[in-house]
Amino acid sequence: MGELGDALRELVDAAVRTEVPEAELEAAAVLARELAARLRASARGLHEIARVDDPETGERWYSPVYGPGSPVAPPLVASDTPDGRATGRVTVGKPHEGPPGLVHGGVVATLLDHVLARALRAAGRGGLTATLTVRYRRPVHLGVPLLLTAEMGETDGRRTTAHARLVAEDSPEVVLAEAEGLFIALRAERAADVFSATGRTVGAWTSRS
Fold first, then answer.
1. pTM for this one?
2. By residue range, what is the domain housing residue 115?
3. Which residues form the Thioesterase domain (predicted)?
């Protein structure tokens, strides 16, 4: 499945960069639809959790941020520690472009949101994003190896804050963007309601500390 994700990301990159003639685009569209039909021969429902996912830890094979099986993930390579810290490394390409040559601001926010949430889950303080404040300090260029770091802040009942920053790996002293998030852990009964359509017990977004 990881190989398919890699291949599809190559395809997405090629699709947004190609300048081949229109006839070639039409032929490629036919092949793409044939492949889609082949994969849909056995597909899960819209709310069904993939069998390779772990809803208790929040690890998602098809996450649009880091999932190795996702054709739209950059993908971010992330790690975390139980003391509420997380790190992510990623190089963002053409499929996530906003202004010419720059990473889309929404993608920057998504990357920051993920490392914030990951830091909290690692500390047993999983929750859904309630607020996310992003400060864009400098343009973030495509093709530049990036480093994201996040750490847990204050806790108050089911509410937890966290802070994150984004820098270029070769210029860690220059902050490109930073974020502060407020996350609220779901009560077990609320989580059961929110995720009821999955038919599974989902514990990653509830507090365990």
1. 0.95
2. 77-198
3. 101-173
Are residues 89 and 33 part of one domain? Answer: no
The DSSP string of 101-151 is: TBB-HHHHHHHHHHHHHHHHHHTTB--EEEEEEEEE-S--BTT-EEEEEEE
Q: How do strand 85-91 and strand 77-81 relate by DSSP bridges?
A: antiparallel
Residue 54 tokens read as: 């772990």
Burial tier of 56 (Cβ tally within 10 Å: 0-12, 13-18, 19+): middle
Helix (H) or strand (E) holding 15: helix 2-17
Return the pLDDT at 104: 98
Per the listing, tokens 């098809």 go with 62
Contacts of 173 (CB under 8 A, 6+ apart): 167
Q: Is 112 found in the same domain as 193?
A: yes
Q: 2: pLDDT confidence band, cut at 50, 70 and 90?
A: confident
